[in-house]
Amino acid sequence: MRVLVAEKCGFCPGVRNAINLAKRTLEQEKSAYSLGHIIHNEEVVSQLSKDGLVPVDSIEDIESGTVLIRSHGATLDQLEDIRNKGLKIVDATCVLVKRVQKIARQLNEEGYKVVMIGDKDHPEVKAVVGSTDDVEVVGTPEDLDKIRLNKKLGVICQTTQSPDHFADMVAAISRRGFSEMKVINTLCRETMERQTAAVKLCRQVDVMFVLGGKHSANTRKLAELCKKHNPQTYHLQNWAELDKNCLFGKTVAGVTAGASTPDEVIEEFVRNLENHDAGSVG
Hints:
This protein is an alpha/beta fold. Helices cover 39% and strands 19% of the residues. It has three domains: 94 residues, 4-hydroxy-3-methylbut-2-enyl diphosphate reductase, catalytic domain (Cobalt-precorrin-4 Transmethylase, domain 1); 81 residues, Rossmann fold (3-Layer(aba) Sandwich), CATH 3.40.50; 93 residues, 3-Layer(aba) Sandwich (Cobalt-precorrin-4 Transmethylase, domain 1), CATH 3.40.1010. The strands form three sheets. Strands 1-12-10-11 form a four-stranded parallel beta sheet, with helices on both faces. α2 links the parallel β2 and β3. α4 packs parallel to α5 and α7 runs parallel beside α8. The longest helix has 17 residues. It is flat.
């Protein structure tokens, strides 16, 4: 089978930095804690756990040692609690997420009502909401009915949202009552380039595979976008999840991957696809 790989896919700089920081920390201290999973990839989290990185849901679960702040960031209250307990902090927050947090604070200080476009349950969004006062999160135009918009609006976006969704939501917000609206593009360029490359590729192939964790927002978004342009799109975590029946009769396959997907997962998937006989079943 012929296999084409998207020009941009796999680990982004923020994720690679977080993993490298975790590995260096474990080399020095043998064990450490992460506040939640360091990235949204089960295989990476499992391997780092074996190496000594222990994910916890609450700071109360940590008595002593080092805490790794994951790539999605942490709230001001969480950081304060960690310091108050005398724990050491290793900050692996993505620089782009830090930028969003800083912008949210600045807008708030300048008197803008901060509106963040994104998924309120995503850890990045929670960290931004917890970095300043009074941030409203909206994921759909219907969410706008639930909030009271100020005269001055400051609009930002979760870094992994698509440009189209960002534009649609800004348009929906602009139809509401306000005297001033300041919109700052906080989308991740790496994410946008991955989405563009994935859509371009999925139009050229018989079947499209998007590799990455099921809890990864950017991977799910890649799969959603590809599905719109190629119904034969499958979101899988690895080769083991593939139902080979979907390959029957296909001659060209496309592969992309989310920002938390390791290179070896992509390489194994591509290698197995290339060796597969598309005329066989199962």
